[in-house]
Amino acid sequence: MEVAAKPILELEGINTFYGQIHILKDVNLIVREGELVCLLGGNASGKSTTLKTVLGIVRPRTGRVSIGGEDVTRLATAHRIERGLAIVPENRRLFGPMTVVENLELGAYLRPKADLKAEFERVYSLFPKLYERRSQLAGTLSGGEQQMVAMGRALMSKPRLLLMDEPSMGLAPVLVEQNFEIIRQVNEAGVALLVVEQNANVSLSIADRGYVLSTGRIVLEGPAAELLQHDDLRKAYLGR
Description:
The chain has 240 residues and is an alpha/beta fold. It has helices at residues 47-55, 77-82, 100-106, 116-126, 128-132, 143-155, 173-188, 200-206, 224-228, 231-238; strands at residues 7-18, 21-32, 36-40, 62-67, 70-71, 85-88, 161-165, 192-197, 209-214, 217-223. The chain has ten helices and ten strands. A six-stranded mixed sheet has the order 6-7-8-3-9-10, sandwiched between helices.
C-alpha cells in the first residue's frame, strides 16, 4: 500500500482579520512533500492574505500554521524561512541595478558558502539562459528572464516549499506557458510548490491538487483534473 507523503504545510481553521474586517474564514489547506498545489481566486478573495499568513507577515486570530509538523503560528517570518519556505513574489521584485549573479546570491544568504557552487549549478541547469546572462543587470532582462531570476533566487535557498504569488502576472501568453513549464520542472526536481494564481486553466493543468477561495472561504478543493471539469469553476474561471 502506498504511503501518503508527509505534509510540509498545514493551515488549520485559519481566521485572519484586518482590524475588524474578517478576511480568511476557517481556511484549511495542506501541501505535502513533492506536491504542486494551486490556490485560485479572484481579486479580493483572500489569496494574498493566505500567503502572508503562511509567511507570518499576518498573524491569524485563531487557527494553526504548521511547517513540517511544527506549529509556527507565533513564529516570525525569519524562523519560517529557516524552516524551508521561500517565495517568488508578485511582480518578481528583483534588484534591477544588480547583476543576475548578485540577485541569485541574495537567495542563498542563509546557506553555507561551501554549498553555493552546487546551488548555482542546480539553478543554471534549470535556467541555462541565466548562465548566459549572469553578468547582466537584472533590470535589463526581459519579463520572462526576470521571472527565471526570481525563481532561481528562491531556489538558491534550497527550500522545502516554494510559494509563488501570481507567476503569470504581466507576462505574454506564450511566456505564461513557458513559465508554468518551468514551474512543473522545478516540482519534478523534488520541490513542493504552492502556486497562488488567477489563471485557473494553466495552473490546474500542471497541479496535483487545487483550492478555490471566494470572499475568504475555501469553496472548492480536490484533484486538479477534477476541478478543471467542475461546472462552477469552469463558469467562473474558464468562461464555459
